[in-house]
Each structure stands twice: as structure tokens, then as C-alpha cells.
Amino acid sequence: MAAKERFVVEGSQYQEIDGQMMEIKRQLRDKKGSVLDPEKVKEALQNIIEGAFDGVRNLRQLIATGKYGYVNPNINEKNFPKVLSEDEYTLEEIHLGKNMGTEEALDYIKEEGLEPADLYDLAEYGADNPNAGRKYPIVELGSVWADPSGGRDVACLYGDASVRRLGLDWFDGGWDDVCRFLVRRKKSA
Length: 189
Known about the structure:
The protein is of the alpha+beta class and 189 residues long. The protein has one domain. It is 31% helix and 22% strand. The chain has helices spanning 11-29, 38-49, 59-66, 102-111, 119-128, and strands at 70-71, 89-95, 100-101, 115-116, 138-139, 145-146, 152-159, 164-170, 174-175, 180-186. Strands 1, 2, 4, 5, 6, 7, 8 and 10 form an 8-stranded mixed sheet that branches. β7 and β8 form a beta hairpin.
């Protein structure tokens, strides 16, 4: 993941971008119909809002690319908003080899100088690695959703040779010794 560069937009550049946005809206409002597909416009604008350039994919695209046989319906941008990272990092699985609680796993991750991956990392990892989750569950601990009953859930990639699933598991529960945790390792400056 690349760090997000910041830009200051002023004067004529701002006016030019504003004019392009007004033209998109004009075309969409055309009473004779628009040549612009409104769903594609929405997706493109969402990618812009999320800073998804240069091949960076949004959650819907990552899920589609991952070709999961099942995706928990609560895994969406509303419940798991994207948090942009300023750091560059690589993703890797770690195996702790024993049953443990979430706090113990998070302590270990921190002690090793790593960060827990989030849902977007897990979806990207699954999309880029079609066999990930088939032999053992891979859990992210960096995105936590509070479900309507008050439970806290994190995403888990699991499955077998025939199907992969992107599901939710209870954050406050324990993790079996077969689980792997997806983590971020910061790249050296």
C-alpha cells in the first residue's frame, strides 16, 4: 500500500475540476437521456472520494475480484469505512500456533512491531491470493464492527477447496491455534 500524497488545489486548477464536475451533472440531468451510465459514474466518483487511483480497488471491487462463494451481508463500506493509511506497508500472515484471545493476539502483533490488517487489507489479500483461506482461517483485527446486538465483529477469510467465504467472527471470542492473522509490516523509509 502506498502512502497517500497530499495536494493543494488552487485557482484555475480548482475551477477546471469544478467545471468538469458540473459537466458530468449536466449530462446526467439531460432530459433526452445521458450517455453516461449512472452506476459507473457513482463507482468512479466513489473511487475518487476514496483516493482509489492507479489500480487501487474499492471494497466492492475487491470482493468481486476475490470470487467468494459467500460474503456476509454486513461486510460493506457503511459498517467498515475505509481508513486511509499514511504509511507504506506489506501484508503478511502470522501464525501464533496456540489458542488465544484477541487481546493476547493484538499484544503479540504490537510487540513484533507489526500492525493488525483491516478488512480492506484482507479483501485485497484474498483477491490477490485465490487460495488464501482455503487451508486455514485468516483473520483481520484492525477493523471492528459493532453489530446491532452490541457484539463486536471482525472479518475472517475461510473456506475449503471448493469455496471461499468472507465472513464475520466475534472479536471478543477466542482464536483457535489453526488461525492466521493478517498483519501490516511497515516498509523502511
